[in-house]
Amino acid sequence: MSIQITPIKPAIGATITGVDLNHLSADDNQAIKEALLKHQVLFFKGQNLTSQSQVALARTFGNLHIHPVFPTVPDVKEVIVLDSHQTDLRDNELWHTDVTFSKTPPLGCVLRAVKIPPVGGDTLWASLTAAFEALDDETKDFLRGKTATHDIRLSFPAERFGQSAEDDEKLQKAIANNPPLSHPVVRTHPETGKEGLFVSEGFTSQIDGLDEQTSRELLDKLFAHSIKDEFVIRHQWSEGDVVIWDNRATQHKALFDYGDAHRIMHRATVLGDEPFYKERAI
């Protein structure tokens, strides 16, 4: 088989076929890495990926993150378990870029579908690169060089994630280890050099240096703008599907629209570097 890459939308997304993710050649790995930089989200249908192979695939992009809150696959601590019958997953209904409450948010993620509801449970991704490029020049210039505060508590409130004494202790430790910090509002991608928005409703609480009302109004404007249809792709899952996304250039949102049906996803997260903004050459 030869690898086939089929773009889905101009701004975001490609389907990849002709490859078995359990048995990747060096050429396959390189093609996937190049496709990820170009398309930002990659979709693989009908894979039978093991947890060990998921870790191996994710490690081709870098070292892996150990999440401070979510449970993990037994004996495979690099793979977190997103189980709708075990964990309140409604935080994923907020648009967010993963783990931006840390100094070095992830490079990206490898997500596989283990159990899917009969209907519902889709995931959406949005290109923050395309969203920034579509802003007017005045807004772009205003945002460049500014920073914003990211706070773990926006997506992990105590009333949902600290209901037992054990869970609350774990949550409070995570909060103490991840105090609010600032990242650039406009991030320069470390590999492509492209500019992209780096704010999301899931973790961004304040644009630094602006009064509360002005910050709130601007963030709400950016949040609404960044999820316009032309920047967004939606995936209807089947069991065995695998998706890889570039966390440096996208945000995503999982839909909690399947009631009490059971949904299980396994995710491996690749460590990233500290976000920065590099002023463009004139």
TrEMBL record:
Residues 4-269 form the TauD/TfdA-like domain. Keywords: Dioxygenase, Iron, Metal-binding, Oxidoreductase. Its EC number is 1.14.11.17. The keyword Transferase does not apply. It is an enzyme of class 1 (oxidoreductase). The keyword Metal-binding applies. GO terms for molecular function: taurine dioxygenase activity. PANTHER family: ALPHA-KETOGLUTARATE-DEPENDENT SULFONATE DIOXYGENASE. Belongs to the TfdA dioxygenase family. This is Taurine dioxygenase. The gene is tauD.
